[in-house]
Specification:
Shape: extended
Number of strands: 0
Oligomer: single chain
Radius of gyration: 26 Å
Number of helices: 11
Distance between the termini: 62 Å
Largest sheet: none
Structural class: mainly alpha
């Protein structure tokens, strides 16, 4: 009897949960429908009519790029210096942010014998650092320092330190403590334990996250060009704002961005594979 009553109670709870889920879905649908009608009334044109023209601008870009013929490849070469500037912003920001992230991760992980009272302080600091998007930080720094790649680099590095610090600390939490305990028993200092017991274990994941973040920072640096940080983003803003006749340049920038991200992704996979294979060999 007790088992039957328990099964009945579980079935009743499941039905109530399904009912609450259905009510929640219906409320969301009602909000979306009412929001659509309101937005459509406020819009200068009908949403449905605008949706039919959604692919007009992308088709113009493709058409102009096709009409450019072999000159399209010359446009790609033309925009390479701007892409290199964006890569420089992303690379410097990732190096600075990654180095700071390693320090923050080591100081915020109990598994590596960090100073206990400092751990929650460092973790809250990393929360604050990754709470603000790069765009917001860059806008503030551009207002203070003026339009240049420097505000973009600082903004991306600041956010990178908080984001990578969190990922690195999670990697630290999953390491094997036996090498640390062995070195500690031999009288090794904290820095020696980090160097010889922790870093060999976390290096492959660190590198993987670092290169992934570099890929993200390339896109972030390109976006920051829209607000005056220079690089390929500034050129993309110009070509998009130019209107008719600049679609071939816009397409060249998109192709250049795609090729760059693909190369970074393949390089990341190759380097991580080499490092993991080297670690296994040792």
């Amino acid at each position: 009897m007790a088992v039957a009553a328990l099964e009945q109670e579980i079935l009743s709870m499941r039905k109530r949960r399904q009912l609450y889920s259905l009510i929640g879905v219906l409320l969301v649908v009602a909000v979306l429908v009412s929001g659509y009608s309101k937005s459509n009334a406020m819009n200068s044109g009908s949403f449905v009519q605008g949706l039919s023209k959604f692919f007009d601008y992308p088709s113009e870009i493709v058409t102009e790029a096709w009409d450019a013929g072999s000159a399209f490849f010359g446009l790609i070469v033309h925009f390479m210096p701007f892409m290199l500037e964006t890569l420089n912003i992303a690379a410097v920001a990732t190096l600075i942010g990654g180095a700071l992230a390693v320090v923050l991760a080591m100081a915020s992980t109990r598994n590596v014998d960090s100073y206990g009272p400092l751990i929650p302080v460092i973790r809250r600091m990393m929360d604050i650092m990754r709470a603000f998007p790069e765009l917001i930080i860059a806008l503030f720094l551009i207002f203070v320092l003026g339009s240049s790649p420097v505000p973009a680099m600082i903004a991306v590095a600041f956010h990178t330190a908080g984001a990578l610090g969190k990922l690195f600390s999670e990697v630290n939490e999953n390491i094997d403590r036996k090498p640390i305990e062995g070195l500690s028993a031999c009288g090794a200092s904290w820095l020696q334990r980090i160097r010889f017991a922790v870093m060999p274990q976390v290096a492959p994941n660190y590198l993987s996250y670092f290169l992934l973040r570099f890929e993200i920072n390339v896109r972030a640096s390109a976006i920051l060009g829209f607000v005056g940080a220079g690089g390929i983003g500034a050129e993309l803003r110009r070509t998009i704002g130019w209107g008719q006749g600049a679609g071939d340049e816009t397409a060249a920038i998109f192709v250049l961005l795609f090729i760059t991200i693909m190369i970074i992704d393949q390089t990341s996979s190759y380097l991580r594979g080499k490092l993991v294979g080297s670690g296994r060999a040792h």
